[in-house]
Amino acid sequence: MTERGLGALTMFENRLRKLKKEREKWAKRESITCYRVYSEDIPQVSCILDRYPNGFVLYDKSSVRFQLEEGHDERFDRIASIVREVFQISEEQLFLKRRKKQKGSDQYDKLSIEGNFEWVKESNLEFRINLSDYLDTGLFLDHRITRDWLRKASKDKSVLNLFSYTGAFSVYAASGGAKKTKSVDLSKTYCDWALKNLEHNGFKSANHQIVNADILQWIEEETKNPNRERYDLIFLDPPTFSNSKKMREEWDVQTKHRNLLLLLLTKFLTDNGEIWFSTNFRKFKMEVADEEWSERGFLCVNRSKESIPADFRDEKIHQLFCIKPDPSN
Predict the structure, then answer these.
(1) Strands across the sheet with 35-39, in order?
(2) Same domain flag for 81 and 160
(3) Where in the numbering of this chain does the S-adenosylmethionine-dependent methyltransferase domain appear (predicted)?
(4) pLDDT tens, 64-73?
(5) What is the largest CA-CA distance in the chain?
(6) Helix or strand or coil: residue 329?
(7) What is d(CA 284, CA 264) in angstroms, rounded to the nearest whole number?
(8) Do 143 and 57 fall within a single domain?
């Protein structure tokens, strides 16, 4: 390894020791058990470290080109050993994820078959996570604030959760007093996971439905149903791109969000309902202009900045738009 490379790793170790103290103090004060520790703070050490009660997850965020370079795996192993040393943890407590460029349904593919499921607390709720077997753990930590907002906005409302993943937003809605929730996702694995999350938190009623379906196809079919339900609050956090074989057509959030949002607005939303739309596509641009929302009697409020938790230094980790009735109309 070059002298420059060794210098970057020394900087990384020093930064990690400082972050450890800061984050542990903050997490204890805020009663948070799952949080981000490190996020590419040093450009030459391109990785992310998340902490959970019983383990850590280290993601390699290097470009695919750098991942193919000779010596890259050894360097990543050295980064992992620094993490173990700083936090005084064993090899079994640190899970390594080499994040390749995703294609199609890669986000659903298992990385291993260890079956390491556990329950973690967030707020007064519990969620099932898995640190080893999938690319993601089952709980998106960057939406911690958004989930709490949704809980507070859900009382006595019917909530539709599209691209629902493991159903965390549905659990929060139910805990906030939603009269009903419906979670729709393409993956049967995640639908089963969402059911476990709901039932574990005491929401076993038929009022909390889970639908395993291609979301675009489900919406198309529901649109033709004259007796379809309308919802007071619709939340969606779709993938940036998917060409899964389970889907009838490709999904691209930039090119397809406009039609989807306007269809939800006109066909699925109650008169005073709201749509909360999130995306982690870093170059995303909302294709529905403010004037068009206004003509339809709505406001589109960008709440991205205030929705990003204190442990996330990446201000582009997600964007969040809240589409709500314009009180001036």
Answers:
(1) 35-39, 47-52, 55-60, 94-98
(2) no
(3) 109-245
(4) 666 667 788 9
(5) 69
(6) coil
(7) 19
(8) no
Please list, residue by residue across 14-28, b when 16 or more beta carbons sit within 10 angstroms of its beta carbon and e when fewer do.
eebeebbeebeeebe
What is the C-alpha to C-alpha distance for residues 103 and 84, in angstroms, rounded to an integer?
31
Within-domain flag for 107: no
Instruction: Please tell me the distance from the alpha carbon of residue 216 to that of residue 229, in angstroms, as a whole number.
Output: 16
Burial zone of 296 (CB within 10 Å; 0-12 exposed, 13-18 middle, 19+ buried):
middle
Beta bridge partners of residue 160, listed in sequence order: 182, 234
Last residue of a domain, one of 75, 101, 127: 101
Instruction: Render pLDDT for 266-301 as a digit per residue (tens, 0 to 9).
Output: 999 999 999 999 999 999 999 999 999 999 999 999
- Residues 191 and 94 reside in one and the same domain: no
Please indicate, yes or no, if residue 311 is contained in any of the structural domains. yes
* Residues 6+ positions from 97 with CB-CB distance below 8 Å: 57, 58, 59, 60, 111, 135
Q: Are 150 and 171 in contact (CB under 8 A)?
A: no
| pTM greater than 0.90 | yes
Q: How many domains does the chain have?
A: 2
Cα 191–chain centre separation? 15
Establish if 79 belongs to a structural domain.
yes
